[in-house]
Amino acid sequence: MIPQPCNPITAGLLVGGHSTRMQRDKLLLTHNNRTFIEHVHNVATQLTNNILLLGHHPNLPPALRNLPQHPDAPPNKGPISALNALLQNAHTDWTLLLACDLPLLTAETINILISATNPNNLITVFSSPSSLSPSVPSSLPSIPRSLDPSLPLLHPATALYHKSLLPKVQSAIATNELSLTRLIRNNPHTAIPTTPHIDRSLTNINTPEDLQHL
Prior knowledge:
There is one protein chain. This protein has helices at 36-45, 79-89, 107-115, 166-174, 180-185, 196-201, 208-213; strands at 9-14, 30-31, 34-35, 51-54, 69-70, 94-98, 123-128, 153-162, 189-193. It is an alpha/beta fold. It has one domain (9-213): Spore Coat Polysaccharide Biosynthesis Protein SpsA, Chain A (Alpha-Beta Complex). The strands form 2 sheets. It has a 7-stranded mixed beta sheet with strand order 5-4-1-6-8-7-9, with helices on both faces. A two-stranded antiparallel ribbon has the order 2-3. Strand 2 and strand 3 (34-35) form a beta hairpin. The radius of gyration is 16 Å and the shape is globular.
């Protein structure tokens, strides 16, 4: 059951990345006999029936091929364009942006995010300490870095965005302010401190070395 106040939500899965650092398609990498994108999709189905694919991918697994697919708007601007497409096409007030390279993500982690949503804010996001706690294994693959290493690390590609944020997203794109982290910091948001367990769930796999340590 999805907690209030953001029931229902629309989940948008990022499928349009170039996987430059991995040097092969991250969506189709496997963990526990399931592709990364199938795993993230499975998590999303435990939270909502409203699921969109953001970006274009020609070789989706069969289970995902009938999902609505929306190109980045505009193209070649990074994840903020995918968020723009998500907010434009969602029929719910709250949307959930999900990266495809999260093979350890759990519905429990996302429900923590949903439960903490403040209706007075436009964004709900996880925030990790600027350096990992000693209790987190040193072999843990990379987690997203913030613009300023002295600030907590935000996780903008595992976050909730309110549909009313759309004009601000479009304004940021128009002025070429393409950082989702900057967008979050410049708008009312709820930042949820992570635990080592949540940080592991949010592990994203960007490089062959990350994959080796998974």
